[in-house]
Amino acid sequence: MSGAPSEGRHDFSRNSGRDIGQSPGQDFDLEFDRRHIWHPYASMSASAPVYPVASARGVRLKLADGRELIDGMASWWSVIHGYNHPVLNRAARQQLKRMAHVMFGGLTHQPAIRLARRLAELAPGGIDRVFFSDSGSVAVEVAIKMALQYWRAQGVEGRSRLLTIGGGYYGDTFQAMSICDPVAGMHQLFSGAVSEQLFADRPCVRFGESWEPSDLDSLKDLAARHCGEIAAVILEPIVQGAGGMRFYHAEYLKGVRDLCDQHGLLLIADEIATGFGRSGELFACDHANVVPDIMCVGKALTGGYLSLAATLARAHVAETISAGPGAAGVLMHGPTFMANPLACAIAAASIDLLIESPWRKRVARIERELRAGLAPCAQLPQVADVRVLGAIGVVEMRRPVDIGGTQRRLADRGVWARPFGKLIYLMPAYVMSSRDLRHVCAAVREAAALEPV
Model-level pTM greater than 0.70? Predict the structure, then answer.
């Protein structure tokens, strides 16, 4: 075999990457990025502009050109303590001295035990069996597997579908994608490959409004007609996140729990976006005093340092699966980086940092200031709605947002946000100052005013 590189391949050791656009000594080769790196929900033939970040500290992103942007997104809602936090940096350094990673199959370690104990202590009552995974979407996949195996371990056939509500978002892997909104999600692109699930009308009664029991009628009807097919009901409690940023009534969630009990169905709560204080309660289920059978957490779990998620289950779920015959008694999942020690150590430190902080007061202050700062947007003719819950502020336009143009206008005002669909929304870190939040809200008001009527 010749030592020369095969035809059609690059010999990086000789070319140093220059033949594919890399410029020696250039820190940010944006042309290489444009030609070779796929960004989320982006086209390789018409990539949107990207902003090169050189460093991050507190609530600010420092760009390569020296500009600083106040981050109103907390990096997709995960960096709740701000960037480069000394407590989390110290936890990372200390763990690196011991080990960055070790497989979790047949082994265990102190960071995983400590983190699992903290999650079991804080989760809604009785959810104390913890399965670690790499991301929120995978945590949802694991939750679905748990629900399917729960019934199969009992010898029950046919319970293989999921009942959910329209307007949801659960991730981009296949089973998670199958329960995302069937209209605004990716079902059309993957029709025939995505499992067919059951979708009730999305809740109409908003959080804090007068409760109307008929809001549950669609879900009740589907549960009654398809009970023998349903493995679980799955939903995002109180806050529907990336499917539309809607906030629904706590009584709806209570009604779903009662409905599951009535029909003997499992309830899965996706707390990936809402967990760890985002909605004003530690978990959104706490607004309704509801305990799900299975719960998914992620995003803010590590304070935005590393990707880590967990699927928690009540004892009866874990024990039923484990008592199943043969392979049915083993939960059939095991990621390579499951319970990564470095991620677990940072996550445990992040949870301690949150619980020891005045997080409720901080989130309540952010809620008040978002309400005050975004309220004037409701007077704009191009705005359909303004809504706030906890550290979540949403301006919904009447038409789809000019995403690239709006991001550019916000960046010119020293603010980072990432609109989608008809929404310009904010989910800041809990440590953002009042002054910074006022600046961010003012920039959003200006950007909304420049959208077409």
Answer: yes
